[in-house]
Amino acid sequence: MMDHSKQKLFSSHGNGKVSRKLLKAIGDNVIIEEGVLIFHPEKIELGNNIYIGHKTILKGYYKNSLEIADGCWIGQGCYFHSAGGLSIGKSVGIGPFVKILTSQHDPKDLEKPVLHEELVYNSVEIKDGADIGTSSIILPGVTIGEGAIIGAGAVVTKNVPDFGVAVGCPAKIIKYRTNT
């Protein structure tokens, strides 16, 4: 295994405390609670009537974007990493401590630590009216359908269709929402 102890591998991303003016776009009535950290604000677009809870991290990236549409509610302590692109539709509810990831390491070389392997980027899309339960984790490349529900603590590794209800680890569809 390669010795990385003397190589400069890491650098700071800053403290995440930024002015609203630095965001790519921000609508009316956007509440950003104390302790929210925002990285690469020039890649983040926020619509109207959005609530972002305390100590959430919006981790923009030098490429791709993080877009949150009108009417969304985001609980405290969430972590959104948008390296691969992240799009959240209108009127989406996201419970506290949800994690959304859009990149991962691609471990191909057994001689390298996984940390030093190439990153692979895959976008995440959450469609209008979906609800993401507390402490859920959404992995790269996933689409959550319109009006879908993700149960608390679920780990979503595959797409969830419109109006599907998914629970568990890994998340599985247990039923579909209907008007009856």
Task: Write structural notes for this entry.
The chain is an all-beta fold and 180 residues long. The chain has one domain: UDP N-Acetylglucosamine Acyltransferase, domain 1 (3 Solenoid). It has strands at residues 25-26, 30-32, 37-39, 44-46, 50-52, 57-59, 66-68, 73-74, 79-81, 86-88, 93-94, 99-100, 103-105, 119-121, 124-126, 131-132, 137-138, 143-144, 149-150, 155-156, 164-167, 172-176. It has an eight-stranded mixed beta sheet, with no helix packed on it. It has a six-stranded parallel beta sheet with strand order 1-4-7-10-15-18, with no helix packed on it. It has a six-stranded parallel beta sheet with strand order 3-6-9-12-17-20, with no helix packed on it.
CATH topology category name: UDP N-Acetylglucosamine Acyltransferase, domain 1
Question: What Rg do the Cα atoms give?
Answer: 17 Å
Distance between the termini: 59 Å
Structure annotation, total helices: 0
